[in-house]
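Section 3.1: Structural characterization of target chains.
Under the original work plan, the team committed to producing a structural model for every single-chain target entering the pipeline before any wet-lab resources were allocated. The record below documents one such target. The sequence was received from the expression subgroup and is listed exactly as submitted; it comprises 445 residues.
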Amino acid sequence: MSFQYLGFATHVPRIDPSLTIYIAISVACFVPVLLWGLLKASCLHSRQHKPQGCRKLGLGGKSYLADELDERYKGAVAGQHKGSATWRVKSLWIYPVKSCRGVELETGTVIGTGMEYDRQFSFAQLSSKFPVSAKTPREEKATHTWKFITQRTLPPMATIKTEVWVPDSSSPTYSEWHPNIRSGGVLVIKFPHIQCEEGFMGKVKDLLALVFAQPEREVHIPFNPTQEQISDKGYAVDDMEIWKDKPRSLIIASTEKEDRWIQELRSYLGITNHFALFRVSKDDQPREVYRCAPRKDKLGYQPAVGFQDAYPLHILNLASVRDVGDKLQQGAPPLSARNFRPNIVITGGGAYEEDCWKRIRIGVYQYYVSCRTVRCLLPNVNPVTGKRHGSEPNRTLKDFRCIDAGDPRNACLGMQMVPASEDSRIKVGDEVNVLETGEHLYIKQ
């Protein structure tokens, strides 16, 4: 109106309303994409290149458990071998960092402590609220102990991804002198990560994180550091309490040392105490396994574990998982074998047939089935989302699976095993033969 009043209206270009709409739509689409690009670019420093001289351990395609909810796994699986039900290995798993996401394998090596690369690392927090250093005298540490943590109390640990990269002599970047090779490979840890920034950009990134997938923080760690690497990186040694054991272990990273990435992970998990990543120390006395396990005079070696709870191997029958899943209360999410964090998932026979196994052969190697696996609340945690269900499957399991007189108040599912030799191989598809059956009596820790 003012342009017309001043006589300038004829000199002002008219904008086509359709062009205005086009510009508005373009800006509305372009700005989020631009901001998303800025968010990704700002997180590039958190992403690492593939470890030189190594290949990634694990499956290249979809999981062998992708069809685990198929109806045929509810009972004996006919047709696995010459038309009859035959036990076979369906899926293999290792968990490089205790209670973090696992790595599925096609083939694996079994050593005296279980699957190679399994549970060699564990996160822990100081049990008291005041800080101490690794050099503090042991007397002062009596009430100040590093204690392992798991999904039992911190369900979001399920979202921490792990990878194992092993030396590969066919790699063009392979060199026997490269640190990755000398340390026997690289552990990669990934977890959801948002840069903590103040001001406008911090608010923009927080907003975009709600719209787009969260960026990941990626950390590379020597899998089995040499003495030289331990010295160069300043890795300390301290006791870490895991159940009734206190093995001397390497501290790989700690909030006491102000390692940036582990401070970020502590914030993500909501931990307030000092927080650290420990590794099994090859120089320390191993955590030998007794209780229900066979002894050295029978095996030729005494079974031991890394950071497993109790035994070297855990085997799980998919038919048993499916039967429990069918009994869950209405509204409970589908139950996966992954909820129970097995090393070996098998199919072939009916549900719970494994309860009485004492000795089996997988492929050409023998294993002693030591006892039943007593279940805690950890299977209530969704292995993908890290969300814990309020009651299932624990409630249903306790309704009908408190079957072992050694621990009559807790439910059992799956079996704990010990390898008959310290060096064996296992692969998906291996036939499982039951050599001996009998009664089991669980012995508590």
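The first strand starts at residue 54 and ends at 56.
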